[in-house]
Amino acid sequence: MIRAEGLTKYYRVTERKTGRFAALRTLLTAKSKLVTAVSDMNFEIPRGGFVGYIGPNGAGKSTTIKMLTGILHPDGGRVEVAGFSPQEQRKEVAQRMGVVFGQRTQLWWDLPCKDSFELLAAMYKVERREYDKAMSEYASLLDIGEFIDTPVRKLSLGQRMRADLVAALLHNPEILFLDEPTIGLDVVAKTRIRSFLKELNQAEEKTILLTTHDMDDIEQLCKQIIIINHGQKVYDGTLEELREQYPMPSLLDVEFHGFVNEAHLPEGAQYDPTYNRVKVLFDKVTTRPMPLIDRLGECAEVRDIQIQTPRIEEVIRQIYQEGHAAVKVKS
Amino acid sequence: MALYWKLIRASVAAQMEYKFSFLFSTLLMMVLQALDFLLIAAILLKFDTIKGWNLYEVGYLYAISMMVLSLYRTLCNEIHAFEKYTVQGEFDQLLTRPVSPLLNLFSRSLYLHQIGGFLQGIVVLAVSLWGLYGQGVSVAKALWFLPVSIVSGSLIVLALGLATATIAFWTVRIADFLPFTVYAPINASSYPMHIYPGWLKGLLFSVLPVAFIAYVPSLYLFDKGGAWWYLLLTPLVAAVALGLALAFWRFGIKRYHSTGN
Amino acid sequence: MAFYWVLIRKSYLSNLQYRAAHMINNLGSMLFGLMFIAIWQGTLGEGRQVVGFGGQEMGQYIAFTQSILFQTKFLQRGFGMDEGIRTGSISLQLMRPVSFFGYYLAFCAGSQAYNLFFRTVPLLLIFALFVGLPDFSWSMWLPLAGSVAMAFYLGFLMNYFVGVAAFWTKDIRWSFIVFYTLNTTLSGFMVPLPVMPGVIGDIVPYLPWSGMNYYPVMTYLGHSSVRGFVIPLIWCAVLTVVALLITRRARSQMEVQGG
Fold first, then answer.
1. pTM, whole model, 2 decimals?
2. Paired strand residues for A254
3. Which of chain B's residues have a Cβ under 8 Å away from the Cβ of C130?
4. For B40-53, how does the pLDDT look when each residue is reduced to its tens digit (9 = 90+)?
5. How do the residues of chain B divide into helix, strand and coil, expressed in percent and rounded to 5?
6. A277 by DSSP, 3-state: which?
7. Beta strand extents in chain A (DSSP E only)
8. CA A228 from chain center: how many Å?
9. Are the C-beta atoms of A190 and A155 separated by less than 8 Å?
10. ipTM score for this prediction
11. How far is C151 from chain A (nearest CA, A)?
């Protein structure tokens, strides 16, 4: 469905002068230098794939997405989306693609959602019948009926995101690009959006490419993950395979009240007598947290419990510390 | 007061950081704003007078209006742009501080980018007074009165601005009120009042008392039939207008306390 | 085409939500207009004339230019393209299967249509109380409509240039102020163009800005001329080509610098 071969992109950055009359001197004698944003990127995403595209800020994620959508032209390599070149057949590609940016809306700020939907339907030449079908299907799944007549500027973030998802799906695209679709949402809203995306991917075989910093998004949704850093791909494979190489433990942090019987603590638990608390690292996939918490509860009266989920940035840092050689790249 | 100066110094330092860009933008702004006056000058050059007032006399009115508006925008920017506090709900934050909200607003209000109008006003004023002097008119009185003119005029503009800002406690936004309550009246004060139809003149002498900024005193200063006590009207009207605006502002805050936004 | 028509309607509707605020704003426009009218009538007095107009006609002149202000000069600064570039939402705009230029044209047309009903007409009627209306004849309607349409389109183009400048400079306040000032001074907004001093007065009738106020208002006052149609028409055509070329450059500019 999506294929990138040797994809490369440079940016020209003007060097800013500092000191006296900096602005004027920059204007007159600016030197620009080339910065590599994406270098020699190869990947392939099959139809019905659900891919997490992951990396720290500035790693080249949005540059790649802009090349896939035809906004930017690559300086090297080629890219193919649904059998088209986004650079030469931009409008054909746009017609087969839905995009959601979590941080900004594609809806018209001053108009009710419904008007935005009608505008987008006209823009993508969606026929009345298809439009009604999409509305009845997605509108009920995402429950947007209650605010469909409200101007977008008055929606909550969660409502806006749901409306944005419907907007991206009106023209029944084969491919969805989602840029941090769960950012800033509360747990309920996140869960709702995730189950909707899962349904979309399984029932309608939509190919979904998702960028995120949220480990739960990746764990619950992605069949394939691609990790990039400094414009280069550093991992491409399933989450399970990544886990095999890099354990990603969650941290259970329990604070006790009163005497703790250290002998009863589970294996691997670290007891800190100064604060009377215990830390346990565990893998969410192999160990379920509830029995572990029950077990700790038997040791003494629990005052406070915290669970820290692993951060993807942490994994990337690990990959880098161990060097590229250790990374298995599926091609 | 010491705190006020400290905040102002910090603000000046921050805005002067980009010296070149600041000077350039201020100069460009001056030139562009002057074009506005050049259009009027083009009319007056062709027809000599507008209901008995010549280019230099109108230039004097224009210069004073320009200077007081610029001073207001430079020193009271947060009053002028008050709607951001009601739109984004930042006004609550001001109410939690141990100083009066108005004083707090003033301490954040310095906006040097608007100083260009003042400089331009000085240039137009100098040219106008020089021209009048050349026509044998005594300009000494006008020069003596200049500080009173500018301080009182600025306070009249402040009163209009503050009253408009207060409307935001009811309507949240005020941008659409400003043309009627501030921009148009200040512009109108650049011309002799007797060119306007009666009801408009009445408005500019009462509710929007911009006639007193420069027109009323100039009737005496340039011997256009005014008496010496016309000079007293300017500071008097400024004090009354500001007093009324402050009362309205306090009323607005009281209303805000009881209903919120 | 259907899309652009929908966009025109929706843009009209989104303006409609703010009509109460716009009515208050109209009061300010009214005050400004009456002030300019007073300046002209005070200058002309009883007997004097300018380009053949007495005080009454100059009043109508100002009334007309003041009433179409929101379609030619007070458009949303650069249609908010600078904001779009700052937040990155311009990417969405560039990605869509519709023309970038056409999108903004339709967007602008919707708000111009709104302003025609909610600013131009009420303001003209208010001013009519003070200066009356010129003699209408049915034969005038078509030339007037054509002339005004070109004025609106030129207004759109000028503001489009301001907006597209954001692809290069990020801060478009200066280009806005420059274009705004050129509109004010060179379009015949306050002063009929032939009155401008010296050589300037000879040149300005041939510049694109003349089509934004001077020629439409002359048509409105019953002084339409062939020249008054041909000059704006040529500029509309030339500037459209320029705008499309610049749009293409803007797209590739985006590529060089990223988003």
1. 0.83
2. A278, A305
3. 197
4. 777 887 888 888 89
5. 75, 0, 20
6. strand
7. 2-14, 32-45, 50-54, 76-81, 97-101, 175-179, 207-211, 224-229, 232-237, 250-257, 270-272, 277-282, 301-308
8. 13
9. no
10. 0.86
11. 27
